[in-house]
Amino acid sequence: MTDTTPDQSPPDAGADAATEEAATADARAALGRLRTEVGKAVVGQDAIVTGLVIALLCRGHVLLEGVPGVAKTLLVRALAASLEVGTTRVQFTPDLMPGDVTGSLVYDARTAAFSFREGPLFTNLMLADEINRTPPKTQSALLEAMEERQVTVDGESRPLPDPFLVIATQNPVEYEGTYPLPEAQLDRFMLKLPVPLPGRDEETTVLRRHAAGFDPRDLAAAGVGAVAGVADLEQARAEVATVEIADDVVAYIVDICRATREAPSVSLGVSPRGATALMQASRAWAWMRGRAYVSPDDVKALAAWTLAHRMRIRAEAELEGVTATTVLTSVLSTVPVPR
């Protein structure tokens, strides 16, 4: 009699592990290509590109701050061109209304009814250029979208696409005609990346590229094309979610954030949302560096980007030259590091 009992032998664990390792390598390679592709258009901002990739991995929003002419807008445009995702750009101005961003109800004379016309928020990557040039009323139109990833108009909630990422820019040295972002708005940005001036060698390279015919308005001519897509992001995000973070490292993050609230020169410390952002960013950074666990050094490396913009310094301390960065540096040097 023939034995028809199904094979009960265990699956090949080695093959499964090899498949997972290959998927991880592919996802990491896709994001590596993304960083290289952006570098075709932008010189000397590798750290900022890394920050943008971390934000993509964590579904976090980014605030880019830098003086005019350091390629803030070009960075975002190059990132969008390197990804197979939808993208929009909104130039924030004093006369911009909330409905211009979120969308609004439009009357259709043919049907004698109102229909919803989607605003530029309904995309995967939205560039909010010079966000601090629009009044708080319009700035606050982004709050629900950034936190809940939906837009509510006339009592009806409409989900935004996934992935959804807001990258905003602002100029730190020009204050005339600007409106500082309120604390609630700043807290929605996972990372605030200060875009520095390039070094001498990088600036020389920029000029040589322009002399050779580089046109920042035509990225396709510069060879910038899509090298990663939504599937690559989803795979990478799944891998980041598996990165382990020990209890003592979690406690280390909490202690850092609590220390900012207790600093005498600080009127507003880091919120629990900020602590969560630091944990998520640290996991993404650890994964990008090829590790499956978060170390205290990862936390230190991402602390300034994730925490400094969430802190408010007392006026008397500001007069003495105290900044959020100096307070954070002091906190990181005094909070005990887990071993």
Task: Walk me through the structure.
There is one protein chain. α1 (13-39) crosses α9. The chain has a domain at 244-339: Orthogonal Bundle (Helicase, Ruva Protein, domain 3), CATH 1.10.8. With 339 residues, it is an alpha/beta fold. The N and C termini lie far apart (64 Å). The strands form four sheets. It has a five-stranded parallel beta sheet. A two-stranded antiparallel ribbon has the order 3-4. It has helices at 13-39, 46-58, 72-82, 98-102, 136-139, 141-148, 183-186, 200-211, 230-240, 247-262, 272-288, 296-307, 315-319, 324-334, and strands at residues 61-65, 87-91, 103-108, 113-118, 125-129, 150-153, 156-159, 165-170, 189-194, 266-268, 312-313. InterPro entries: AAA+_ATPase, ATPase_AAA-3, CbbQ/NirQ/NorQ/GpvN, ChlI/MoxR_AAA_lid, P-loop_NTPase.
Q: Largest sheet, order of strands side by side?
A: 2-5-8-1-9
The DSSP helix count reads 14
The CATH architecture of one domain is Orthogonal Bundle
What is the total tally of β strands?
11
Determine the fraction of residues in helical runs and give it as a percent range.
40-55%
For the biggest sheet, the summary is: 5 strands, parallel
Unreliable parts:
1-6
Specify the structural class. Answer: alpha/beta
The CATH C-level name of one domain is Mainly Alpha
Average pLDDT confidence is: 88
